[in-house]
């Protein structure tokens, strides 16, 4: 059977309207600012999301999952917090503080149910760059009369670095709060996924290089500024002959053990209700071996050292440091927010809820600001802990709060047991946790197949961040990303579309047979001042239209129309003036009749009457008496009467 193809036509009739006509037809509604009870309630619940979801918390459905998840994440927070404190160049116990206070604050103000906030490798290495720059070892050297050498006053140095870390963290929190209050959450749109992934991969390289000194047991010089990573690698290579064999062996054993157990977790992931806490097992075993063998004294292996029990009292950050860390604080605020909101949106989309971008800024800002007061360093979201929190059954922010309780318990009672933990083990934990970031190198061939511009953004971000450090690298990467946007708008693709057959479909005329009629000129970029001239040239090339001539003719017609309107307006003014001159300003009709009947004058009044501006009107009437039966002699004689008549008010 054959089917007949029918063409469908569309006919649209609509009056052509200009902007003025649209404004007249559509009445604009007035914007009213009101403060009603429901609106105030909505604002409060928006600022404190916990008030909206905690009263409706389904204990029976979520309590067990959140409890198991919170304990699992808290156990992970212990080794990661201590390890990332080394990246921040502060004592390990401050990593535990950073895993407690900010997490509780986010529990109150955050909107993501699944992300695990706390210490993060990229943020920690950025903090470490600031602390080592403003509190280098050289500023704390003192002369040791026993050994006749210069030694570093570690207590004074660490105290100053803690103050620097707290100041930059507090400032980054203030930036995030300010950006959240002005609804600047859209700033994350400028951090494209290739940029973020390239940046985190480069930051992982910085993290690895910063931990090489603990792996090899050496003390390289500290470098800062552009190309500092290259200088550090060269310094490490130069010091390799001085490697501490004990530290290297501890590192290798820890790395191999961690990788094997993590692979076992991945293999048995569906069979195990909770992943094996390999990191906790590693630090416990390493601490016991170090304590029994006395690795520090016998083999010179660097250990964590003193871990004070209890919590630190709140201290306001040192205001004199704010001016020196303002740039680093802004970079931290943008990077931390970008990573957290990206991961938060992934899980929000997966589980069908919404993450408020501006509220996330405020939540992270308050977490960092409060954390800075309690001497914490900047936090963000950790991918590894978030995956554990989600896979172990965590469904709400309660899991994060329970993990903070676990850290509190460890800090108050059992933290001192880890004083003999080798720092090489913490470095090994960091290396293994960076596996996910290192796998992001696979993005390059994938982006090459899908979008080469995005691949260029990834590669450029990686190179710039490696060469210029995380802070300057971020600024340079964003600038490069924006340049690619400008590049895309400067070189768009232009095409001419024609109707295909008897359909209402339009396709490029170079690829399809077209039906004569209407054609469409299409540009792949938005038209604005930077590409307007190229748009005009492409339009002339594709269609043969001379836009310049058309615009010139239009201007001439417009000028002609304006001249015609001026002439008509001038003619109208002249006609109106003549009409005014012909009009006669007469006194009231009754007065004229009384004057004529009284014999004051006869004939026709031919001149205008003038009135004074006061209450009495003085009428000057120049009358001419004419008679239809007068003679020539009489016509030569003009009789003129002038009368003054006062009219009442």
From TrEMBL:
Residues 561-575 have a biased composition (Basic residues). Residues 626-641 have a biased composition (Basic and acidic residues). It is a multi-pass membrane protein. InterPro entries: S04_transporter_CS, SLC26A/SulP_dom, SLC26A/SulP_fam, STAS_dom_sf. Residues 561-585, 626-649 are annotated as: Disordered. Keywords: Membrane, Transmembrane, Transmembrane helix. Its main location: membrane. Residues 65-461 form the SLC26A/SulP transporter domain. GO terms for cellular component: membrane. The chain crosses the membrane at residues 82-109, 164-191, 238-260, 272-291, 329-349, 361-384, 396-415, 450-468. Pfam families: Sulfate_transp (PF00916). It is found in: Membrane. GO terms for biological process: transmembrane transport. It comes from the Eukaryota. NCBIfam families: sulP (TIGR00815). This is Solute carrier family 26 member 6. It comes from Gadus morhua. The lineage of its organism: Eukaryota, Metazoa, Chordata, Craniata, Vertebrata.
């Amino acid at each position: 059977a054959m089917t007949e193809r029918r063409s469908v036509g569309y006919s649209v009739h609509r009056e052509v309207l200009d902007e003025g006509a649209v404004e007249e037809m559509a009445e604009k509604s007035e914007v009213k600012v009101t403060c009603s009870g429901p609106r105030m309630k909505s604002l409060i619940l928006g600022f404190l999301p916990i008030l909206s979801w905690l009263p409706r918390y389904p204990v029976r459905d979520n309590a067990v999952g959140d409890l198991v998840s919170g304990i699992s994440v808290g156990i992970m927070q212990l080794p990661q917090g201590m390890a990332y404190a080394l990246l921040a160049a502060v004592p390990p116990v401050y990593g535990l503080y950073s895993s407690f206070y900010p997490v509780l604050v986010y529990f109150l103000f955050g909107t993501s149910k699944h992300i695990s906030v706390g210490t993060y490798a990229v943020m920690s290495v950025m903090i470490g760059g600031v602390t080592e720059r403003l509190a280098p070892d050289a500023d704390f050297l003192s002369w040791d009369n026993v050994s006749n050498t210069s030694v570093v006053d570690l207590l004074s140095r660490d105290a100053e670095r803690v103050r620097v870390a707290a100041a930059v963290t507090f400032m980054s929190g203030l930036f995030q709060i300010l950006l959240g209050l002005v609804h600047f959450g859209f700033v994350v749109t400028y951090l494209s996924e290739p940029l973020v992934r390239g940046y985190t991969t480069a930051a992982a390289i910085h993290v690895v290089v910063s931990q090489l000194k603990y792996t090899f047991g050496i003390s390289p010089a500290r470098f800062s500024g552009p190309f500092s990573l290259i200088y550090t690698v060269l310094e490490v290579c130069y010091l390799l002959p001085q490697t501490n064999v004990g530290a290297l062996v501890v590192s290798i054993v820890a790395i191999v053990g961690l990788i094997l157990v993590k692979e076992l977790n991945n293999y048995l992931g569906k069979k195990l209700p909770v992943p094996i806490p390999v990191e906790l097992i590693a630090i416990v075993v390493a601490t016991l071996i170090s304590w029994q063998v006395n690795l520090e004294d016998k083999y010179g292996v660097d250990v964590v050292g003193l871990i004070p029990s209890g919590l630190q009292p709140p201290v306001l950050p040192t205001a004199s440091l704010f001016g020196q860390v303002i740039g680093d604080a802004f970079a931290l605020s943008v990077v931390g927010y970008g990573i957290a909101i990206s991961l938060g949106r992934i899980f929000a989309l997966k589980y069908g809820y919404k993450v408020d971008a501006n509220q996330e800024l405020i939540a992270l800002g308050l977490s960092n600001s409060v954390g800075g007061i309690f001497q914490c360093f900047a936090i963000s979201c950790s991918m590894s802990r978030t995956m554990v929190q989600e896979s172990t059954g965590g469904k709400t922010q309660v899991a994060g709060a329970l993990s903070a309780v676990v850290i509190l318990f460890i800090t108050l009672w059992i933290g001192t047991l880890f004083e003999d933990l080798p720092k090489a083990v913490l470095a090994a934990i960091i290396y293994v946790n960076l596996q996910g970031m290192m796998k992001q190198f696979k993005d390059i061939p994938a982006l090459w197949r899908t979008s080469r511009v995005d691949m260029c953004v990834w590669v450029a971000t990686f190179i710039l961040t490696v060469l210029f450090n995380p802070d300057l690298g971020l600024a340079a990467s964003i600038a490069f990303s924006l340049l690619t946007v400008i590049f895309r708008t400067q070189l768009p693709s232009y095409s001419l579309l024609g109707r295909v057959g008897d359909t209402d479909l339009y396709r490029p005329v170079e690829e399809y047979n077209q039906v004569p009629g209407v054609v469409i000129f299409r540009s792949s970029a938005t038209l604005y001042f930077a590409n307007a001239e190229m748009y005009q040239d492409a339009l002339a090339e594709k269609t043969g239209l001379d836009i310049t001539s058309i615009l010139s003719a239009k201007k001439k017609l417009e000028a002609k129309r304006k001249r015609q309107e001026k002439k008509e307006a001038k003619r109208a003014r002249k006609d109106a003036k003549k009409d005014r001159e012909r009009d006669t300003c007469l006194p009231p009709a009754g007065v004229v009749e009384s004057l004529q009947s009284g014999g004051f004058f006869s004939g026709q009044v031919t001149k205008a009457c003038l009135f004074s501006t006061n209450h009495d009107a003085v009428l000057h009437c120049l009358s001419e008496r004419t008679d239809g039966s007068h003679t020539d002699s009489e016509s030569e004689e003009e009789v003129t009467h002038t009368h003054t008549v006062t009219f009442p008010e």
